[in-house]
Amino acid sequence: MASSSSAQSRISNLQNHLSPLDANTKLRSLVKISPQVSEALSNGRAVVALESTIISHGMPYPQNLQTAKEVESIVRENGAIPATIAILNGVPCIGLNEEELERLASLGKSVQKTAGRDIPHVVATRGNGATTVSATLFFASMVGIQVFVTGGIGGVHRHANHTMDISSDLTALGRTPIAVISAGVKSILDIPKTLEYLETQEVFVAAYKSDEFPAFFTEKSGCKAPSRVDSPEDCARVIDANMKLNRQAGILFAVPIPKQHSAAGNLIESATQRALTEAREQNVTGNAETPFLLARVNELTGGTSLAANIALVKNNALIGSQIAVALSQLM
């Protein structure tokens, strides 16, 4: 039998190996953090995480590049540092420079759409990955970013009672203490069931300046929001409390699309119903379904849905930046 001292030594070594500080240091060494983002995090400045799937799969080149640059500019103009996240040549990158943004945008759909489950494979094969909400949450949490802006999160798909198609975004939110600012969930999804699932995952959900949960392309979904917040400062205080209480679940702030872009909601909903039918007929499932539906809805609406999508992402970037700045002032 081993001596008690040697056994205790092994236990001590194991505890050291698993300590959060040690693990966090090792994790951060595996990613490339841009100088701007690194400096901002070190100095307690506001940083806003941005996903990259919307660049690679959300719209064609060069419109995707232009939109990505405009969103980053909005973040900077409102006092925060943008941290667009992607995997390039197997290296997770937190904050992209202009050359990296250009490369990601020009590669387009040849880049792998990367959810949380896909990260090890993309890194191991030195591939290129555009991060979805779940993957972006993982990397943002790894480096200590507290605010993440996106267009809309994934959710429970319509007819999920038959397909069991539920986005990993929801479970990622349930175990990652980060605030996500979005226009709710994509309108191609089942919004009531998504809200129920978020409640099960203990995710705090609030609508921004509204009592009703937004439906991505429209201001209202018919679903009452679980909570309401009315300012960036309100949001920052919720995030701060969540952090201080060491809750491990995330937060979703749902920001309604600007009024001037919500008028086409009925047209878009009609196109969505048709696209859903076509997806079922063509047996489009899994992570291919959302890009298919969004592209088809854009075709059916003559580009109206894409214009609305861009408008709501920019609005979310504006609100998210203000929230990040308000949070930095509390810390």
UniProtKB/TrEMBL annotation:
Top-rank taxon, per record:
Eukaryota
Which of UniProt's keywords are assigned here?
A: Glycosidase, Hydrolase, Lyase, Manganese, Metal-binding
Q: What is this protein called?
A: Uncharacterized protein LOC104758360
- In its UniProt entry, the species of origin is given as Camelina sativa
Task: Indicate whether Glycosyltransferase appears among the record's keywords.
Answer: no
